[in-house]
Design brief:
405 residues, alpha+beta, Double Stranded RNA Binding Domain, 4-stranded antiparallel β-sheet, 3-stranded antiparallel β-sheet
């Protein structure tokens, strides 16, 4: 390096027009010495009657021979009437544009989740994000470059389900917004965020806080169920245990309130509800078996012996009244949900975060099979598949304070 600088010094051209610390190497190439020992190459040229200085890089990254080659190439461009600075900016813009087109929404989602995973205490959040986006956003946006996504594209994702699944779709909208914010910060797109609510989608969609949900019972978003269960476990009384049992089994409240010990097989871990207690027309009713998760069995063991017949008795010794769980919710100050609504919570969770077939989830909910051909074909109860599903649901409902989140 010392010999190189010596040669440069020998070829310096002293000129009053040069800024301090700038030395001429010849052919428009200059060496710039700045504070703290930083040295870099400059190329000076005249285009359309104006003089320009063009940075080429530091001497550590660009050796003298290569700097002179670049200066020669730029001199040739100037002779052809080309401004090398403008050309370089155009090439850079084209490269950025190609990079932006290559960054699809799906790739941006993967990059965002990878960047945020370190701040999440467990992988449940990432799974929820990926599951909902995979189901709703990727079919419409996945292969699109993030730089080309517009408000109309986001609306194509949301509109069909907005009134049917308002809570879920509003979460999807927010997640799309955050991914596009990341893409903007990472220089893969420019301009306003097309998934932004205020001043944008707010004018095109019903307000999620007042939109009429097509569900008949107020349902808690599934990503809040673990906190709700944690609140239940902190409360004494039979109604709190019965409410958690309703949630874990995805059963109707009437089924749980009327449950008797002769329906429960703790050894086989199965609760068999007789046909006469099932909902529906009498000629279509059939007994319903519910596989019991580890936590459901724990609840049953905790109330065993409280009554010889009724699983969840009231303080009077009779079956729990239909108002018992309603009173529980009032004490919890949770007028925003109903216990029955947790069936919808379970259904949304299963559809959006698991890969269980539709018929397995429907059978877990004891829904009637309306298609006669399907009903005739499917005569089994899919008990073992449902057992895995219900255990996974129970694990998901486990409160954070239990150390499993």
């Amino acid at each position: 390096m010392a010999k190189t600088l010596h040669r440069l010094t020998a070829r310096q051209v002293t000129a009053k027009s040069l800024p301090p610390g700038v030395h001429h190497d010849g052919g428009g190439l200059y060496l710039q010495n700045r504070e703290h020992g930083h040295r870099s190459w400059l190329f000076r040229f005249t285009h359309d009657g104006k003089r320009h200085w063009m940075g080429l890089g530091s001497i550590e990254e660009l050796p003298l021979a290569e700097a002179r080659e670049q200066a020669a190439a730029f001199r040739a461009e100037v002779k052809r009437g080309i401004n090398p600075m403008s050309k370089r900016r155009e090439n850079y813009a084209a490269t950025v544009s190609r990079t932006s087109r290559a960054m699809t929404f799906e790739k941006a989602m993967d990059r965002f989740l990878a960047a945020k995973s370190a701040q999440w205490s467990n992988d449940k959040h990432a799974k929820q994000w990926r599951s909902t986006l995979t189901q709703y956003a990727l079919p419409k946006l996945g292969s699109m470059p993030v730089s080309e996504i517009t408000t109309d594209d986001v609306l194509r994702v949301l509109e069909g389900q907005w009134l049917k699944k308002t809570e879920t779709m509003n979460r999807v909208r927010g997640r799309i917004e955050k991914i596009l914010d990341w893409a903007t910060a990472a220089k893969h797109r420019e301009g306003d965020n097309p998934a932004r609510w205020r001043g944008n989608l707010k004018e095109l969609l019903a307000d999620p806080t007042t939109a009429k949900n097509e569900q008949h019972f107020a349902a808690l978003p599934y990503d809040q169920v673990a906190d709700f269960v944690g609140d239940l476990r902190g409360r004494a009384g039979m109604s709190a245990k019965a409410a958690e049992f309703v949630i874990l089994t995805a059963a109707r409240t009437t089924m749980v309130r009327g449950a008797t010990w002769d329906e429960i097989d703790l050894e086989a871990r199965v609760w068999t509800i007789p046909a006469e207690r099932m909902k529906g027309r009498k000629n279509q009713r059939r007994e319903h078996k519910i596989p019991l998760s580890d936590r459901a069995v724990e609840i049953l063991e905790s109330v065993r012996g409280d009554h010889p017949e009724i699983v969840f008795p009231s303080t009077t010794g009779r079956a729990m009244s239909e108002n018992a769980m309603l009173a529980l919710l009032k004490r919890m100050d949770r007028r925003d949900v109903t216990i029955h609504g947790f069936r919808s919570t379970f259904r949304d969770w299963a559809a959006e975060t698991t890969h269980y077939p539709h018929e397995v989830v429907e059978m877990a909910l004891a829904h009637t099979i309306k298609n006669k051909a399907e009903a005739a074909y499917r005569r089994g109860d899919l008990l073992e598949k449902r057992r895995a599903l219900m255990q996974e649901w129970a694990d998901y409902c486990q409160p954070a304070k239990e150390g499993l989140e």
